[in-house]
Amino acid sequence: MIPIACRRADASPWASSVLQGGFRPWPAPNQCKTGRTVINSSSQGRQGDCRIRRWAVWRAVMDAVGNTDWIQKVANGGLHIMRRGDVDPDMTRAAREQRSAWRLDNLAEWRRGLEELGHYDPEYPYDIGHDYDWDWTTDPEYTSDGAHFSEYDNGGAYYPSDLRRTAVPLYMCDTGRDRLGNRVEWQPWIYFGEAMAVSLNLLTRQGTPKNMVSPGLVVLPPVFERPSAIADRPDMDRIFRIDMGDPAPELVFECLSPTTAEWKLNGKMRLYAALGIKEYLVYDPGGMCAPGSPARLLAYRLKDGVYRAIKADPELSAPACPAFASAVFGTHIRMQPWARHQNEGLSDLRSRFQWHDPARGFWRDPETDKRIRHEREVLEGYAEEWIKNYLKGKVKIWTLMSIDLLHVFLENALTPSIREQVAAVWQEKGPPPAVVDRIRTVQRTPEEWHAQLLGAVGNWEGDAAPETDKRIRFQQEVRTEAVIAVLHVFLDKELNSNIRDRVAAVWRQEGAPANAIDRMLAVRRTPGEWHSLLLELVAS
Q1: Distances (CA, A) of 224 to 21, 59, 184, 244, 249
Q2: For 79, phi and psi rounded to 5 degrees?
């Protein structure tokens, strides 16, 4: 949607009063310029389907990536495209103060103008210090459908709406739900009572208590958990009345933007502490906390009524990506920054919030899970096919692979005639167990070639009709050998041969872990943790 500002389109007295009041001409209620329907809060309240709302925001985010300019109508009827940093005289601090003064002197007329907005909400504490137009606002807490957030600095310089403010919590919601279910909610409305607003000096410019906020994301108490099949709440179920006895969220997340950093790091922090919210996460996408500040996640935990910074865990932190222990998530969390967007020159919106899975040993989010799921399917398919072919006696592929390894690794250790002799036996009876290790042993001690390469051939199945316990033991041995084969192939670059041999020896003696595939996937991402991932709790 491309917003149209008509601030200087008409020099009539009516237009002048509208300008002072902060309103511009708008289309008929419930219909915006593009023909897209807008929910009218005065008649329908917040009863729309949250899935529609999430889709609408997602569509708006995607549209805005290619339309970050503001088309402004000028006095001669032409159009002026507002770009980042352009100065709008109507939006300087002096001009906004002038409008605020007019509104304060004409509250009734200002209120009547608000009521004509298609997105008007009779419960919202509108502030004379902000502009509320038919499709945009400068109020960061006003998240009503149909009015997007626009930012200007004190000099009237225009900032296209920082899409990360909306997109980062939206992506984070899906990741959080994978860990905590539908207790994680995106942009709810939280009412906390006028008395608390007054005590914290959270007032509008005209002195009305600001008794409602809309955080970027919250984690609700378990009492609000819904059946797992229900993902999104209707809008009416996303209103939480702490002033009427609803428990406060356990965690709140906010993303900073140019004009909201001070509010979220001070006013909102005091409010959330007063509400007893256990943890507060703040994401600076870069340059918001201070000029040139890096993109980073800030984490705070409530202690004695005050938020104190959570120290990053050095063992799990990475450069420019600190990891914090979260009591609410029950594990470590972090925000993984993304690279610059290649086409638009914007920071990629999809900064990835991740939580650490200690059982699997890696960081998780939907995209990482999808990639790991694919890798696991490939590896498990490889191992299962290896086992299937061996148990059925269909070892042709493995035999050919083993013969190839024989010729490659023992080219200088054994003569061609000996290698051909071994290959002929393997083609008839199959290679011996632990064939990779046996080939490596012959590399070091060629004189043992006969015992290593031919002595155990045909001994995989033991007795012709093994008893049940022998069969189970045999199947476990086959599975272990399959997993070891995956180890050597999959971690060839991450771990040197000595480490892989050491792991293989332990697995043959004690058995490979049940989740060996997941552990190898984790080692591929963090090779330095190979010992804890591959050797500790092997029997699990």
Answers
A1: 41, 28, 10, 15, 10
A2: -120, 140
pLDDT in tens, 293-328: 888 999 999 999 999 999 999 999 988 899 999 999
Q: What percent of the chain has pLDDT over 70?
A: 71
Residues 319-355, buried b or exposed e (16+ Cβ, 10 A)? Answer: eebbbbbbebbebbbbbbbeeeeeeeeebebbbbbbb
164-358: CATH architecture: Alpha-Beta Complex (3.90)
In this predicted structure, the answer to whether residue 74 has a pLDDT above a threshold of 50 is no
Angle at 167 between CA 163 and CA 173, to 5 degrees: 160
Q: How far is CA 122 from the centre of its chain?
A: 34
Q: Are 460 and 482 in contact, with CB atoms under 8 Å apart?
A: no
Of 163, 160, 161, nearest to 171 by C-alpha is 163
- Return the HEC string of 101-147: HHHHHCHHHHHHHHHCCCCCCCCCCCCCCCCECCCEECCCCCCCCCC
- Token readout for 309 is 């910074």
Residues 269, 254 contacting (CB under 8 angstroms): no
Which CA distances in Å does 392 have to 321, 359, 459?
49, 33, 15
Instruction: Assess whether pLDDT exceeds 90 at residue 254.
Output: yes
Report DSSP letters for 399-438, one per residue. Answer: HHHHHHHHHHHTTTTS-HHHHHHHHHHHHHH-PPTTHHHH
Domain ranges of the chain: 4-159, 164-358, 366-388+467-540, 395-460
- 354 close to 363: Cβ distance less than 8 angstroms: yes
Pairing between strand 324-326 and 331-336? antiparallel
Considering only residues 264 and 78, tell me which one the structure prediction assigns the higher pLDDT: 264
Are the CB atoms for 361 and 174 separated by under 8 Å? no
Its sign, for the CA torsion 67, 72, 73, 78, is negative
- DSSP 8-state class, residue 339: P
Q: Which regions of 451-529 does DSSP assign to beta strands (E)?
A: none
pTM higher than 0.70: no
